[in-house]
Amino acid sequence: MDKENFEPEIGLLFPCCSRKQVLGEYAIEEIQAIYKVAKAPLIGFFAYGEIGAYPNGGNAFHNETFVTALLKERK
Fold it and tell me: Quick check: pTM over 0.70?
């Protein structure tokens, strides 16, 4: 699949709720910016932090993150 011509069919968004507290109204503008680029239906929710890996190994609780997945069925 060519990433330059990728057209997602749906987007999953999981911003951290602390981003909403810090950014205020700009938190919604982040979501709107993704919608403009993705041009696909979006679904998700504000989460209370995320557990993820560090590049050098190990997992940790992360805060103020914005986890995004844009998906398309492979044909």
Answer: yes
